[in-house]
Amino acid sequence: MAGCSALTGKGERCRGIAKAGCDWCPAHDPARVGARRRAASKAAKSKPGRELQDIKANLNAVLESVRTGAIERGVGAVLFQGYNVLLKAVETERKAREQEELVERLEELEARIA
Question: Is the pTM value of this prediction over 0.70?
Answer without folding.
Answer: no
